[in-house]
Known about the structure:
Blueprint lengths: L6 H6 L9 E4 L5 H10 L7 E5 L9 E10 L2 E2 L1 H4 L4 H10 L2 H11 L7 E9 L4 E5 L5 E8 L12 E4 L7 E5 L6 E4 L7 E3 L10 E9 L2
Antiparallel strand pairs: 1-10, 2-3, 3-4, 3-5, 3-6, 5-12, 6-11, 7-10, 7-12, 8-9, 8-11
The site of fe (ii) ion has 3 residues, from loops.
Pfam families: 2OG-FeII_Oxy_3
Keywords: Dioxygenase, Iron, Metal-binding, Oxidoreductase, Vitamin C
GO molecular function, one term: dioxygenase activity
Amino acid sequence: MSQLLDLDALMATPLAEEPYPWTLLPHALRGQKVARTLEAEFPTRGFRTTERRGGAPGGKGYHTRNLTLVADGGAVAAGLSHLSPRWRELVAELSSPAYRRAVEELTGRPLDGARLAVRAVRYGPGGWIDPHTDRADKLVTQTWYFNSGWRDGWAGSLRILRSPDPADAAADIIPRLGQSVVLVPSDRSWHAVTPVSAAATEERKTLLVHFVAP
Ligand SMILES: O=C(O)CCC(=O)C(=O)O
Ligand SMILES: [Fe+2]
């Protein structure tokens, strides 16, 4: 049984159909104590800075710091070495058949043979991701957020978009502790992360999971 992920909440949540299949889980972790521990132990070391300017319309620009934990379905030892025991447990739960089944149940997408990818991401002031749909080989994407003290004025929202236009927002999700978003990538699944404000006194902390087509 999952001790950290609330798989019942995952399976009980309906998927929205507009502007594409996605959902917000307000409480995706098993209780406040678990959430607080994972927040306090969010990894701090081993991150690599990734930056690219958006060029053509719809091109993906971003500035984030990434720590890869699972790639191509396999644990990445160098990444895991930076994790607390509780965070290693979380990665083990994400790698479990029970989690995969829960995501299949929620999305209706078969994930047989799909390769798991997991990474922790930190966004400092000015960190952002331009509108994009996620690569075509991604079957399902899930994100979790780890900032209990995030303020609305710091921006850094995950913006669910109706089109590639960054202002065409269907929803803005504040990266507050315990919240999680599931989306089903397609050629319509536009989303972005709005630039974190210079006033932010903490980094935006995200965990990102993809199931990638076999
Ligand atoms: O950090 C987030 O909220 C989403 C990140 C994202 O969309 C991506 O890395 O593809
Ligand atoms: Fe994305």
